UniProtKB/TrEMBL annotation:
This is Uncharacterized conserved protein. Residues 14-23, 42-53 have a biased composition (Basic residues). Residues 9-188 are annotated as: Disordered. Residues 80-99, 167-188 have a biased composition (Basic and acidic residues). Residues 133-144 have a biased composition (Pro residues).
């Protein structure tokens, strides 16, 4: 009966009877996001690139990153006492199933963040791609020392020294027939006659021993040392010459220089200063013996007059002295076979060179 009575009781009566039981206190629970459904992200609006504007990285991160609460930060309500056992078991199951889902959700969030950051960065313009940014500080080149020597590259082929002529190493004088002249036991007759003429001119002289050098080629077998060029004309220093050259010098002083001095200055010739006589040497720059090597040449540097006036041989003498020197020089060509002086070359700029070099057909060389 009792069972039958219960079966006839309407459903709404049973419902009212069940709600009359004492209810447990209700705990308000905050809403929690479901893990099985991914969060919907906002559609990122495309950013228009601005020309000549640079966005700092920290500003981009502040604009693109939005705080998203992680599941660990959301508070979980305390379970009911009756459902404690079920909560423990369900918590374990949820932890097992939620671990991969949480990892996947975090990966989705990180991917969305990186995508938003990439969209937020301004795209490079055509101007910025073509021109690299200049460095903040330009590098300074290392200064070179002031006294640095320039680097010289070695030549590709070593330069060869110029070939010397076959006789360049031979310093011997070229042969001259007069180099073999030696004094005889008895003085030749022409040498004796020459000395007699000198005595007639009033020339004072001394005999000197013969000199020769086969290596150099010089030779003077019957030399004389002149003290004067006449009765009133001295010569200094002592002059060693062969007799024919001494006689020619005496005639030149008495017959040419003396009349020219009298005509130009009204005074007599007192003395002659010589620069060179017998010298055992070759001609300058050659291996040919000089006429000085045979006592056959005389260099005159100056003339001194009876009034004390001295006339020096030079490239630019005063007008009156120059006229005198030109007259003497011109008259010397003939009695002497070679006459050189200022203007001929640098070696004869300060003296007259006079010699009796034998030439073909009795010719002369005067400059």
């Amino acid at each position: 009966m009792a069972v039958t009575a219960l079966l006839i009781v309407p459903a709404d009566a049973r419902h009212r009877h069940r709600h009359h039981k004492p209810l447990a206190p209700r705990v308000e629970q905050p809403l929690t996001p479901r893990v099985d459904q991914p969060l919907k992200t906002r559609a990122a609006r495309p950013l228009k690139p601005r020309r000549n504007r640079q966005v700092a990285p920290n500003q981009i991160q502040q604009k693109t990153q939005e705080p998203v609460a992680s599941p660990a930060d959301i508070p979980v309500p305390e379970p009911r006492p009756a459902d404690a056992a079920k909560a423990d078991s369900s918590t374990k199951d949820v932890q097992k199933t939620d671990a991969p889902k949480t990892a996947g959700a975090s990966g989705v969030l990180n991917g969305e963040k990186s995508g938003q950051e990439k969209q937020a960065l301004p795209e490079p313009t055509a101007d910025s791609e073509g021109e690299p940014e200049p460095p903040a500080i330009a590098p300074t080149p290392t200064p070179k020392p002031a006294n640095a020597e320039p680097e010289v590259e070695p030549p590709a082929v070593a330069p060869q020294p110029p070939q010397k002529p076959a006789d360049a190493g031979d310093k011997k004088m070229l042969p001259d027939p007069r180099s073999a002249d030696l004094p005889a036991e008895k003085m030749p007759q022409e040498e004796i006659a020459c000395r007699e003429r000198l005595n007639t001119l009033g020339v004072e002289f001394e005999e000197h021993k013969a000199e020769s050098s086969p290596e150099i080629g010089c030779s003077i077998p019957y030399p004389l040392v002149l003290k004067t060029l006449g009765k009133s004309i001295a010569i200094a220093p002592d002059t060693e010459l062969n007799c024919p050259m001494a006689e020619a010098a005496a005639h030149f002083a008495a017959d040419v220089v003396q009349p020219a001095a009298k005509a130009e200055f009204g005074a007599d010739l007192k003395s002659v200063s010589q620069a060179s006589a017998f010298v055992c040497r070759p001609r300058n720059g050659t291996r040919k013996p000089s006429e000085h090597a045979f006592g056959n040449a005389l260099d005159i540097a100056s003339f001194t007059l009876s009034d004390g006036k001295k006339i020096e041989v030079g490239p630019a003498p005063p007008e009156k002295e120059g006229k005198f020197l030109n007259a003497v020089r011109k008259a010397a060509c003939g009695p002497f076979k070679t006459v050189l002086g200022p203007g001929a070359d640098a070696d004869h700029s300060l003296h007259f060179h006079l010699d009796l070099e034998p030439r073909r057909h009795g010719g002369t060389f005067c400059q």
